[in-house]
Amino acid sequence: MIAFANISWYLFSIAGPMTSELPSKSAVFHYHMDLQDFMLWTLFFIFLTLLLLVVLLVERIRELSGFLLRDKQKKHNQSFSDQVKRLNGQQIAKILRFKRNQHTLKVLFMGLLGLSSLLLPQPLMAANSLLQAASPSVSWGKAGFIITLVLLLIPTLLAVILLFVKINKGIRRLHMGAQKEEAKQIAQEIVANEDPALEATLLARQEALTYRLAPDSLSGNHLANDPKGLLALQEGVEIPIVSRKKKAVPRPYVEPALGKLVLWYLMTACFWLLFGTTIGEYVGIKFVAPDLEHLSWLSFGRLRPVHTNAIFWGWASLAMIGLGYYVVPRVSNVPLFSIRWGWYALLLINLTVLLGTIALMAGINNGGGEYREYIWPIMLLFGIGLLLTLINFYKTIGRRTTREIYISNWYIVSAIIFTIVISIVAYVPFWQHGLGETIIQGYYMHQGVGMWFMLFTLGLVYYFLPQQLNKPIYSYSLGILAFWTQILFYTLIGSHHFVFSAIPWWLQTVAIVGSAGMAIPVIAGTTNFLMTFKGAWYKLADSYILPFFLVGTIFYFTGSMQGTAEAFRETNLIWHFTDFTVAHSHLTMYGIISFFLWACIYAIVPRLSGREAPQITIGAHFWLALLGMMMYTIPLMYGSTLKGLMWMEGKPFIDGVAFMAPYWLWRAIGGSLMWISHFFFAYNLYKMLSATKELDLGEEIIEQIEQVKS
Q1: Transmembrane segments in this chain: where (predicted)?
Q2: 256-693 in CATH: which number?
Q3: Could you tell me the residue ranges of all domains in the chain?
């Protein structure tokens, strides 16, 4: 993706001097950004970031001072009955037991010590500490001066960020301390209060909390009577197409060792997502500032495959496999065969991406095929990791306690088998000559997307979507139909990338027919997912996970059918060699795979960690990713269609390049929004994994009472 530098190029082109006259024929937009201009824009960006952080810092300090001023007044104004409402039933029961024991002990002490029982403990007094804070003509022609300012502002920016984090932690500690002080005072009041009304209040609250309706309170226990014929009463009706579904059972306990393994897969996947898309942003800067640096390791030709492979094998692959380690034993109803093998696979795959990245930046690559730039010794590590995962899953499924194999395991295990096969085919050198190498490249590239990422991810959706909707998948039969037809047709379509090439005409036709046949699994899968939503659409409004599933389902249909449309010779003639294929690849790998993976991650991590991310930042992640992808893909598809028509009319090639300039600007804006959304995702993952937890006031009151008792 192209970074914000394209936007700065656009601003410079507006602010810069206008040419005296545009040429009558084709013209190429060009701007050269030198080091001084780049430093100016970097300085401007740092200044805006500092300004934003200072505003947030002032707001947090104001919030802190307001909290300190309102704290005492709130404690005095709050009645004891309001404080009781903050306790749950178990906590009230503990307090009642304490009060009863306290009353018994009081009678005994009165008999033994007489008037000494009048010496009641006095409440302890505490004071809050106060927090105070104080806050504190240039020539731009010299690049050295600008660089010095940038170098000074960078540590300043880091210091402000660190200060902001520290203040946030201080406010959190202060708030928790105030809650503990409040709990201590309430506990002392409960201990010292001998008013019978206290126990009555607690008993009334406990009765309200423990009240439950009888099973037939609302429905009754009489048989339905329908004299008007308004009800449709059906008993013992079998659905001939849909297989019998299991009844809901309590969700099983998640083994801590398995949970730790899954979380490490997801954390490393998040790292590679940030790394890969940040590389994409930097590559975008290289478009408009090619002389920014002259290091061969950072050249465009080396960084572009670093970006794509980090996303493919780092982000998507690790996230899928990590989620698979949760799903496979869960639907098999048995523990994972070997957690140790899972750690070995995690280490090997991360080592593959790390060594592959270093090798690509050093200029060591496979010398050709897209998505197989890693040399074979490095890719062998990935293959071994996949083999360990396959054996692990196969052994787990083999020990299942259920008779049938749930459809998720069909998709997941098949995806791993196909990926091992296509990797061997792509790296064995026997047929890597001439057209054979080209045909193998098309086979490998398309099977990597369809038989690895798509097949595996669909298996995850068949587990997590019904779970989130709390209802079974609409049709097991449609899932099996989609599974076998995808295997039948998708394995044939790799050559549609080389229509009108020297590849035999019949092989191109086979690929086109296979692409048309892909309508069957796509329509079957989309129908299955949407019909599972049927009757539960209202849940979208109350869930932050289901919108990710819905967006992924929509783009599963639109992106896949778009690929079918691109395969025909008439459309291929227009769209091939244009940015339409770039838009299509992001519509599928981002709109389908990434959105589905985010949905699954948001569904599983809170169950493993016991914590959820703030809904506002999850919403920011969702909308920035969705809007950014739409801004990225739609202008590229529209502009590329017009560009292809220009070429068919015989217009010069360079005219098409100049024509795409405004559409590339939209691509830059959309790509930057997508990149920013990934930092929200990383923050959400951090919040779900962080050990910080809110203080339970009720539990703190019980703890204070226990201390008083002791």
Answers
A1: 38-58, 107-125, 145-165, 261-285, 310-329, 341-362, 374-394, 406-429, 449-466, 473-493, 505-524, 536-557, 587-605, 617-638, 664-686
A2: 1.20.210.10
A3: 35-209, 256-693
